[in-house]
Amino acid sequence: QVQLVESGGGLVQAGGSLRLSCAASGRTFSRYRMGWFRQAPEKEREFVAAISWGGGSTDYSDSAKGRFTISRDNAKNTVYLQMNSLKPEDTAVYYCAAGRGATMTRAFDYWGQGTQVTVSS
User: Fold this and answer.
1) pLDDT tens digit string along 8-40?
2) In this structure, are residues 108 and 35 in contact, taking their beta carbons and an 8 Å threshold?
3) SS3 of residue 93 by DSSP
4) Strand 115-120 and strand 58-60: pairing?
5) CA-based angle 14:16:18, to the nearest 5?
6) CB–CB of 12/120 below 8 Å?
7) How many CA atoms lie within 13 A of 113 on its CB side?
8) Which of 8, 54, 98, 112 has the fewest CB within 10 Å, making it most exposed?
9) 117 has which bridge partners?
10) Cβ pair 106, 59 in contact under 8 A
């Protein structure tokens, strides 16, 4: 099992940037696919980005492509989400997720508690 703790959220103006971090416990971090999801008020949780074990494969939602970058540092048990050109519609609670298995899917098994990102217009 893995435990996930997100950080880096906050308030930013439209057009600005934020970098979210997710620190994972456990010795087998490198064996988990990692992902980011978000949930805006009164909306369902939606997929944002995912990255493979070694970081060689990534997957992005249409809304994230070209603006967000997911990366990981297996030596630090940490996954990142660099968010640029932020828009008010990016406002949401962002969740880190870990998935068992090597196949890149958008299904994950473990979740963090979330970090709030608010983008003002």
Assistant:
1) 999 999 999 999 999 999 778 989 999 999 999
2) yes
3) strand
4) unpaired
5) 120
6) yes
7) 5
8) 54
9) 10, 92
10) yes
